[in-house]
């Protein structure tokens, strides 16, 4: 079973895998490795490291205008899987146009940082690495693409992770990491329990060196636990910490630990799928005002893919994309205008994200409601006049307002900029009317033009 349909929705290879034949005709170095199949079409031997490297070169040049050099003695990155991780980060940080990120262990390719800044031209990346060859090649790859103003490759000591790399006077939007996966050479060679005996041979070659694959003080679990421990010292500097994991068992172990910790960090987990490969991921933050976007949560359970997918479909946030001419700030003003107009009790959770609670339906049948409201106001005035003498008005009003406090809905609202267009996302969180977010969105759409006219006048 291929997992491509579970790739990130913005992953350009999700419905459009690389065309090997086209690439082979265009890129001479790839040509020798692309073979015609007897039944038509072409194939590439993923177990041949030369073929894998030539394909990576071709894909990066063709789709990202990136020229890189890779060593056959080091990890050759799989681009579609890297995109899954990066798009997830883009979602986590709210599609920020400007961001500063950190990549722990950039490898010789420096792939996370190169793709990150290619897709987000205003981002900056700080990349750490312990392996001298990787540092040299990563630096050259950055220079080869003239991205040294945006990407800094820093050689660190193997005992260092965050301490000594991060600057406590600076702010970073995210941290990412693809840690060395294995505990020792036995595990790295697949001789221990990472693959069960019933699983077939890996579909592609691994060119990773020992230094890249092995963290001999406990593999990726220990590596990530160390990052988590050190992250406490930078809770006010880094908004979102993330890491990828090569094994599901590592995720289970780390989550078990996090649950036991009585701490002020909150986290989510997710999976990245591509071809026959799955990777796992975890994101955590100490920012109590931050709400993880719904689409970033884990959405796959290997054995119940269909069920999970259906559930996920129900959770997909409503969205509304605006014309390029509307800035995020304009839409922000509009939203806050609507929240006030509909008397929704709202709270900013970040610059472009809110939650609102509604305790009465103020968006449907507005005219009738307004008439009712006027009637009610008249009755209240009469009551007030009658009761003023008895000094009991306050009590009555307080009692009736608490009696009516049944929550219709809590809704999460976010704005994100992508390709110069602002998109509004709304997700129903809880309450008695699960369609309420949809109804409010409809109200917003219906009143957008009249708001614009009002503003222009
Ligand atoms: C699995 S590789 C990931 C390479 C690349 N980011 C990728 O995804 O293809 C892990 C990398 O982390 C580096 N590394 C190991 N310990 C490190 C440390 N303490 N600080 C920074 N990098 C480290 C290794 O040299 C290796 O290049």
From TrEMBL:
InterPro entries tied to this protein: METTL16/PsiM, METTL16/RlmF, SAM-dependent_MTases_sf
CC terms in the record's Gene Ontology section: nucleus
Any one biological process term the GO annotation gives: rRNA base methylation
Binding site for S-adenosyl-L-methionine: 82, 105, 129, 178
Enzyme's top EC category: transferase
Pfam families documented for this protein: Methyltransf_10
Keywords per UniProt: Methyltransferase, S-adenosyl-L-methionine, Transferase
EC numbers on record: 2.1.1.-
Database matches in PANTHER family: RNA N6-ADENOSINE-METHYLTRANSFERASE METTL16, SAM-DEPENDENT METHYLTRANSFERASE
Protein name from the UniProt record: U6 small nuclear RNA (adenine-(43)-N(6))-methyltransferase
SUPFAM superfamilies (UniProt xref): S-adenosyl-L-methionine-dependent methyltransferases
First and last residue of the signal peptide: none
One MF annotation (Gene Ontology) recorded for this entry: methyltransferase activity
Family classification: Belongs to the methyltransferase superfamily. METTL16/RlmF family.
